[in-house]
Amino acid sequence: MFFATLSDTYFSYKDVSGVKARTLSTRINTITGLPMIVNYDTAYALILKNLSTVESFSTEPGQDPETSLLGRCARLAKGNAFFAFLYKRLNGDIDINLQTQILQTVKSFD
Predict the structure, then answer these.
(1) pTM of the full structure
(2) Which of the given ranges, 7-16, 26-35, 53-62, 91-100, has the highest pLDDT on average?
(3) Rounded Cα–Cα distance for residues 103 and 85 (Å)
(4) Rounded to whole angstroms, how far apart are CA atoms 104 and 102?
């Protein structure tokens, strides 16, 4: 259910003093004016391809960040707006029960 509530985002660029600044923007429905939600099939495919092999929610000290959900999302967020928004949501204030549910859901996609 968590993944079905993610906003459909994209990177927008703005020239600030000769430097292109990148921001994460949400697509808005032109008819309703409401934020759009990411297509579930797209989200499922991205998660299956990129996150199904993670082992933990967050990186433990001394461990490879690629084995954690947050670490993998942080790396993928550099070039993909979906993962940038997912990282932002996962790195927010979510309780341990939701962390466990999200991790188990992601791991079950494999």
Answers:
(1) 0.84
(2) 26-35
(3) 17
(4) 6
Cα separation, 69 vs 3, in Å, equals 14
Q: What are phi and psi of 20, to 5 degrees?
A: -80, 115
Whether residue 7 contacts residue 26, with contact meaning beta carbons closer than 8 Å, is answered with yes
The mean of the pLDDT values for the chain is 88
- Joined together, the tokens standing for residue 21 give 């600044």
Q: DSSP characters for 38-52? A: PPHHHHHHHHHHHTT
Give burial (CB, 10 Å; 0-12/13-18/19+) of 73. buried
Question: In 10 A of CB 41, how many CB atoms?
Answer: 8
pLDDT at residue 24, as a whole number: 93
